[in-house]
Design a protein that fits this description.
By secondary structure, this protein is α+β, with helices and mostly antiparallel strands. The chain contains three helices and three strands, in the order βββααα. It has a three-stranded mixed beta sheet, with helices on one face.
């Protein structure tokens, strides 16, 4: 992909499967991905790495996803078949 990630970390997230900090080139993955297929984890990692090339979900972003992971839409559907786990967050 020609993309270098300086750091990849895992944390609990309420509403996202992943996120990235473009300036720091840091990728965050949701701990809940451990319960999913490795295909889903790979999809989120590639998704966040593509954000290092294109910030927003533009046509260019989708074209890059098509280039680097042609079956990304199937993986996205697989991932979203079950939502993030519900937890009582205490606030």
């Amino acid at each position: 992909m020609g993309v270098e990630v300086s750091d990849c970390r895992i944390k609990r997230m309420k509403t996202r499967w992943g996120s990235c900090n473009i300036e720091a080139r840091r990728v965050w993955l949701n701990l809940e991905l451990a319960k999913k297929s490795p295909r889903c984890l790979e999809y989120i990692l590639v998704h966040e790495m593509v954000h290092l090339l294109e910030r927003h979900h533009t046509e260019r972003f989708r074209a890059l996803m098509d280039q680097y992971m042609p079956d990304w839409r199937l993986r996205k559907d697989e991932l979203n078949e079950t939502p993030l786990a519900h937890e009582d967050w205490g606030y």
